[in-house]
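Quick one before lunch.
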Amino acid sequence: MTTPFNLKWGILATGRISHIFTKDILMPPSTRQVTDVSHTFVAVASSSSIDKAHQFIKDFEADLKVAQYQTTGAVRPYGSYADLLADKDVEVVYVGSPHSDHYKTCLAALRAGKHILCEKAFTLNAAQTEHLCALAKEKKLFLMEAQWTRFFPSILDLQTQLNSPQMPFGRIYRTFADFSIQAPASAAHRLYDPKQGGGALLDLGVYPILWCFILFYRNPENTLTPPSVTASVVNSPLTGVDEQDTVVLKWDKLGFQSTCCTSLVGRTEEWALILYGEKGNVYIPHPLSRPSSYTVHMHGEAHVKHQIHIPGQGMHWEADAVARSISKGELENPIMPHQESIEIMKVMDKVRKIGNVSYGELEDLEK
Ligand SMILES: NC(=O)c1ccc[n+]([C@@H]2O[C@H](COP(=O)([O-])OP(=O)(O)OC[C@H]3O[C@@H](n4cnc5c(N)ncnc54)[C@H](OP(=O)(O)O)[C@@H]3O)[C@@H](O)[C@H]2O)c1
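Model of the NAP complex:
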């Protein structure tokens, strides 16, 4: 058996999603039948206090003991992102800060020579994403937005079926997708705070849109043509960010439209995505970030439910894809290429323009 390619990770930010991601990369790859790549957690940084970095490592004491494939010594804590970026042992950084920080932190990471996996939404606007992608290419570094759902094996299978010439569900006539939650109604909460890139669209609305991109932007008949976009936005009485968005994506070459909804009030209950096809429908349950099954209903037949098996939270699959790309010297991953992140950001730019949602100077490009 050949030795797996091992990737050394530095984690930037000690919040909720950094915890979930780190737990997943510490799962032995054998638990998901992966043998070609593995991961080592070498360092973590907090922008606010080194104590938070120490605590973060403590939170993983038990996982680090189980992660037998770990070959390096103790995980190093840092009290600033800059200090971690200066650590020569770190090959790739995971950026788990709020969206308002992604552009600045990714620029610093690229300038420090690190490969990057950055949480969604990638940046605040398409211009910032384009700048990061151009800089990564110039520096010959790998860069990817963490649209983790794309990497679930069952979802890749569904995507292949839908885009196959056999068209098992016939032509798709229309789709409806929704990712809505009941967020804490607080102006200081990340989801409502404009200084943290708040609003439903960038945080949750990105999922209904990315699903449409997986299924239709990539349909061979669409030939990677971006959809036309219309939208309606309700602004929050608390802070003015978008509290509810309805986005209609029109796929001219495919001859149908997708309705994408998101809201910080009134959570999605059951179906998060419905594909209406000529021969049958497909139903995907909430949440669109991590659905646990999908149900196919061919017209006139019984419903057939397909379970989606997810060991851990499921973020390890995107980490495995990053490791494979870096092992091959790829600067972007074919499942989440730069241009698709840019096109999705362009859709969200258009919606925010319609809704008059701006993040002011946080949206500027660095000179
Ligand atoms: N993939 C997913 O399913 C998923 C789910 C949830 C969130 N996310 C994304 O992950 C990012 C973080 O979300 P989260 O839920 O983990 O947020 P969170 O719990 O609030 O954590 C964010 C962390 O970012 C750091 N940070 C850096 N600059 C900051 C600033 N100006 N204000 C506040 N915190 C700052 C802080 O850690 P330090 O003080 O240690 O630096 C903070 O703990 C967002 O972009 C979000 O969209 C993705």
